[in-house]
Design brief:
78% of the residues lie in helices and 0% in strands. It is mainly α and 255 residues long.
Length: 255
């Protein structure tokens, strides 16, 4: 606790706990957006590297819960199905994470934010865009994009969700697949940012403390998720995806 108060005031720590609770609730409902909410909220009053450190352990734990909700066998089936996405995404995440303090993020955020926002808007207006016959190449491209932006910013959900939504993935499978993809990504992110210095002795207690409110929020969101049908789930996913895209644009334009 002493280590926490050396980094944050009591008011800042309380605000961080509230953000973690909200992030977990949204993730439990639609399966993603925890890093986006963490980064958007924490960076309003914390340094960017501390905000990034804060999201890493709660994201790792909640993604493990999400991936294993239907059991290990279902999680392994998802890994096999999306193995190209996972492999390319993890490699790109590890490479880009080492450049987190060197590369300008503005262009990357804008390049990802614009198509994600347009995709969500078009879908919400009633134009359904689907990928009937996905190829290994398209899967590799989307995985690479998700990994690149994830390593730099800690946010790799929007391109992944856009891809899964375009595949018309079922509600339960989409939640599980996101948990598997983000869970393995979170492991890679942890390893990468131990190497980059973002996670260190001074910042690890802060990230560890945010696990509890994140898990509580995840449980609340899961209860809400079980009460909505596929159509409402898809719409809720698109709304959160639109917010994610707009947030990426905001961050890119205001840097």
């Amino acid at each position: 606790m002493t280590a926490l108060f050396s980094l944050l005031s009591p008011a800042e720590l309380a605000a961080a706990f509230g953000i973690a609770l909200l992030a977990g609730t949204v993730k439990g409902l639609v399966g993603f957006a925890m890093p986006m909410i963490f980064i958007s909220g924490l960076s309003m009053f914390l340094a960017p590297d501390l905000a990034l450190a804060g999201l890493i352990l709660p994201t790792l734990v909640t993604n493990g819960m999400q991936a294993l909700r239907q059991g290990p066998a279902a999680a392994m089936a998802s890994i096999r199905k999306f193995r190209v996405f996972l492999l390319i995404g993890l490699v790109c995440l590890l490479l880009s994470a080492q450049s987190v303090r060197l590369l300008p993020q503005q262009a990357l955020l804008l390049v990802i934010g614009l198509p994600v926002t347009v995709f969500a808007c078009i879908q919400l207006m009633g134009k359904v865009f689907t990928i009937a016959n996905p190829t290994r190449r398209s899967e590799a491209v989307v995985g690479g994009i998700a990994g690149l932006i994830g390593g730099v910013s800690g946010v790799w959900g929007p391109p992944t969700v856009a891809y899964l939504t375009a595949l018309n993935t079922g509600k339960a499978e989409q939640i599980r697949v996101q948990g598997v993809i983000y869970g393995l990504g979170a492991v890679a992110l942890l390893v990468a940012h131990i190497g980059s210095g973002v996670i260190r002795a001074e910042t690890a207690p802060f990230s560890l403390a945010l696990i509890v409110p994140g898990v509580v929020g995840m449980w609340i969101g899961g209860q809400l998720h079980d009460r909505i049908d596929q159509a409402l789930f898809r719409r809720a996913t698109l709304v959160v995806l639109l917010i994610a895209g707009l947030n990426l644009l905001r961050r890119g334009l205001l840097m």
